[in-house]
Amino acid sequence: MIRFYDFAPLDGITKAVYRRVWARCFGGADRCFIPYFSPTKEHLLTNRERVELLPENNPDMVLVPQVMTNRAPELLWAAETVRELGYRELNLNAGCPSGTVTAKGKGAGLLARPETLDALLDGACGKLCLPLSVKARVGFSDPEEFPRLLEIFNRYPLQSLILHARVRKDKYSGPLCYDAFACALRESRNPVSYNGDLRTTGEVSAFAERFPGAERVMIGRGAVADPALFRKLKGGPPATREELRRFTAALFDAYTRFYDGQTGLAARRMREVWFYLIHLFDNARRLNKDMRRFRTATEYRAIEDAIFTELPLRTDSNGDLI
Ligand SMILES: Cc1cc2nc3c(=O)[nH]c(=O)nc-3n(C[C@H](O)[C@H](O)[C@H](O)COP(=O)(O)O)c2cc1C
After folding, report:
1. What count of other Cβ atoms lies within 10 Å of the Cβ of residue 169?
2. 98, 199, 295, 319 - which has most CB atoms within 10 Å?
3. 4-233: CATH, from 3.20.20.150, 3.30.300.110, 3.30.420.10, 3.20.20.70
4. 163-182, pLDDT tens digit by residue?
């Protein structure tokens, strides 16, 4: 039975502004993961990173910050830094598939070099001032690599091992490797959480039936497409049209404030949210195209208004999302 629901980190989308408005309008996730920050050897937070992490910018939520590094001193510094800000857990990114990240041996690049992963965890675990969880994939090139990786993870006490059930080259689409996840459920010494392509309450139920031993899932794109998804998973109602209208209006206002009144920049951020949210509406092809092409905030507002006025609202997001 699934008992814990986490909102995945989505860099560029689920940042502080989005999380704040979403938590006020919908909420329902047990925890939200903050998109990663990458410490340098100077051990300084940039202003942007500080804004993202400051507790006053993140009210009403249980949050877990995420760090991207392959060096123990930076991992230890990141833990100290987030603990001072009041956090109770740090998450290590071992799954980012971007070429520039993996080329530096970070993100999913850690999975291609199991010795580095082992050295990183060995150098940090035991000295960390707060619990560490890891968000990883089931392999770098091949899910056959997973047992070797699990052997390493099993040497260290982790708050949880969150697995995106794909290898690096498949990024966020392509075949899901359920066998590797099943292996993790059977053999992990640490609690395991599943991540990948859960979009509706029906899909989560089917997942829970397939893996009766699973207790934790992390959901990303599905929750941006349907902001009421976590609420529904806990027995609550689907989003109404009015709620969604209030949500997108509040989000646009919050982005406008964030960008000191520049509504064009706010509208561009809304486009990224609508990239997913449009899947909660039927017959959206034409307006979706418009949403991808608008130039001004006024055009954006008109398209959004047409979506809310003209398109049928679905109870669940559609299957084209991923
Ligand atoms: C736009 C975008 C940004 C992402 N940013 C991060 C990130 O900062 N850290 C991370 O661990 N994963 C990141 N991910 C991966 C997601 O957390 C998640 O693993 C992925 O979307 C698959 O889950 P889903 O099918 O529920 O969306 C990102 C994914 C996307 C699409």
Report:
1. 12
2. 199
3. 3.20.20.70
4. 999 999 999 999 999 999 99
